[in-house]
Automatic annotation (TrEMBL):
<keyword id="KW-0312">Gluconeogenesis</keyword>
<comment type="subunit">
    <text>Homodimer.</text>
</comment>
<feature type="binding site">
    <location>
        <begin position="9"/>
        <end position="11"/>
    </location>
    <ligand>
        <name>substrate</name>
    </ligand>
</feature>
<dbReference type="GO" id="GO:0004807">
    <property type="term" value="F:triose-phosphate isomerase activity"/>
</dbReference>
<feature type="active site" description="Proton acceptor">
    <location>
        <position position="166"/>
    </location>
</feature>
<dbReference type="InterPro" id="IPR035990">
    <property type="entry name" value="TIM_sf"/>
</dbReference>
<comment type="pathway">
    <text>Carbohydrate biosynthesis; gluconeogenesis.</text>
</comment>
<feature type="binding site">
    <location>
        <begin position="233"/>
        <end position="234"/>
    </location>
    <ligand>
        <name>substrate</name>
    </ligand>
</feature>
<dbReference type="Pfam" id="PF00121">
    <property type="entry name" value="TIM"/>
</dbReference>
<keyword id="KW-0413">Isomerase</keyword>
<comment type="function">
    <text>Involved in the gluconeogenesis. Catalyzes stereospecifically the conversion of dihydroxyacetone phosphate (DHAP) to D-glyceraldehyde-3-phosphate (G3P).</text>
</comment>
<feature type="binding site">
    <location>
        <position position="172"/>
    </location>
    <ligand>
        <name>substrate</name>
    </ligand>
</feature>
<dbReference type="InterPro" id="IPR013785">
    <property type="entry name" value="Aldolase_TIM"/>
</dbReference>
<keyword id="KW-0963">Cytoplasm</keyword>
<dbReference type="GO" id="GO:0019563">
    <property type="term" value="P:glycerol catabolic process"/>
</dbReference>
<dbReference type="GO" id="GO:0046166">
    <property type="term" value="P:glyceraldehyde-3-phosphate biosynthetic process"/>
</dbReference>
<dbReference type="InterPro" id="IPR000652">
    <property type="entry name" value="Triosephosphate_isomerase"/>
</dbReference>
Length: 252
């Protein structure tokens, strides 16, 4: 059984003080033990967040990293630095990184390999723009992104990764892919993994959906066969909303 993941991506939000308050509010609630809970916070808050969540069920994630362990890469953060503050997850290849910071399939692949080398769990993001969906090329794009992301990665390492399908047209827009649209692509991702590796490997890798996930649509999404959780943006910045997502199985 693939354990569901609800991962919050805070993006460039919350000062340290605001982050402390949000984490405190989340920890003050009862959280489902059937769900893996992850918060991916800004670099400035990682060290403090690590101390706050130690000994709790919340796991800590970074939003990006460089593939080298050290060097002349001004402004970058290495996997070794993340290890030192007990980060367990790292988002790689988010559409905003691709769109605004020139992230490519090649750099995504390098970062995945580096994350795995340093025992970090990569949350690998793939997804299409509205134009790519409307011109009917989105399936080919997803296949290309997944194939290039996992180039040179063994099946033993592949099962240590998480993939997040995030249609770019549904991120922060209030638009959400229907549960059927999300399931279609998550199933496609699993079939691509089966081609790259084998059926057993593809069934072990968790595939998340991201894009305007809210308490009122989480249950429908999670009822889909190939959706194993959510990578959540805006709703992860509100303690009550995030807790409702984590507790989707408990909600009536």
């Amino acid at each position: 059984m693939r354990k569901p993941i609800i991962a919050g991506n805070w993006k460039m939000n919350n000062t340290i003080k605001q982050g402390e308050s949000l984490v405190s509010d989340i920890l003050g609630k009862d959280l489902s033990r059937d769900v893996e809970v992850v918060i991916c916070v800004p670099f400035t808050f990682l060290d403090r967040a690590s101390k706050l969540v130690t000994g709790t069920q919340i796991k800590l994630g970074a939003q990006n990293m460089h593939w080298e362990e050290k060097g002349a890469y001004t402004g970058e953060i290495s996997p070794v630095m993340l290890n030192e503050i007990k980060v367990e997850y790292v988002i790689i290849g988010h559409s905003e990184r691709r769109q605004y910071f020139n992230e490519t399939d090649e750099t995504v692949n390098k970062k995945i390999k580096s994350a795995l080398t340093y025992n970090l769990t990569p949350i690998v993001c793939v997804g299409e723009s509205l134009e790519e969906r409307e011109n009917g090329k989105y399936k080919e794009l997803i296949e290309s992104q997944v194939t290039k992301a996992f180039e040179g990665i063994t099946k033993e390492d592949a099962v240590k990764t998480v993939i997040a399908y995030e249609p770019i047209w549904a991120i922060g827009t209030g638009k959400t892919a229907s549960s059927e649209q999300a399931e279609e692509i998550c199933a496609l991702i699993r079939s691509i993994l089966e081609k790259l590796y084998d059926a057993d490997t593809s069934q072990k890798i968790r595939v998340l959906y991201g894009g305007s996930v809210k308490p009122d649509n989480i249950k429908e999404l999670m009822n889909m066969e190939n959706i194993d959780g959510a990578l959540v943006g805006g709703a992860s910045l509100k303690a009550n909303d995030f807790v409702q997502l984590v507790n989707y199985k408990l909600e009536e």
